[in-house]
Amino acid sequence: MAQDTVSIPTQLSQQAGRKINTKFIIGGALLLLFVGFLGFQMVQATLTTGAYYMTVAEVQAKGSTIFGDRVRVNGAVVADSEDWNAKEITLNFRIADESGQELPIVFYGPRPDNFQRAASAIVEGELQPNGVFKAETLLLKCPSRYEEEPEEVYAESIR
Fold it and tell me: In 3D, which of 50, 46, 103, 57 has the Cα closest to residue 78?
């Protein structure tokens, strides 16, 4: 009888140990699936909005095939195309590329301080069915900040 009483708790503890092990295995598997899903989502987001951007001509050539797709477009800011509405916090302007084609942009958000000096812009968002590009992100390039001084001006300032 002594053996029976000893073996029953041993069997119970082994069964409890197996239950704990299966809980850890299932929990670990779920955790790995979740991490894998997050990794997949990050790769998809990177491929969709990677560093590559389109030109104005490419956007207009693709037209309705990219409606609703998130894309980046690069182009020169068209002079005197700015229309800032402070009440609605809306900035309308146009960008153009080397081919001369223009794309109207609407950006809902604060107007950047350096917008007048901007030489080109990279906008990220979606092309709307009416042909206007709705930008969610606006990056401006101001080359005057990065240009070097002409050598003769620099030489005269040293003297």
Answer: 103
Place of tokens 């809980």: 23
Q: What is the DSSP letter of 110?
A: P
| pTM beyond 0.90 | no
Supply the DSSP string of 60-85, one letter for each residue. Answer: HHHGGGGTT--EEEEEEEPTT--EEE
Check: CB of residue 124 under 8 Å from CB of residue 137: yes
Sketch the domain layout of the chain as residue ranges: 1-48, 54-145
Q: What architecture is the 54-145 domain classified under in CATH?
A: Beta Barrel (2.40)
CA pair distance 5, 10, nearest whole angstrom: 9
Q: Do residues 132 and 106 make contact, with C-beta atoms less than 8 angstroms apart?
A: yes
Angle at Cα 140 formed by Cα 137 and Cα 142, nearest 5°? 170
Count other Cβ atoms within 10 Å, centred on residue 3: 7
Residues of the chain with pLDDT under 70: 1-19, 45-52, 143-159
CA distance 56 to 73: 7
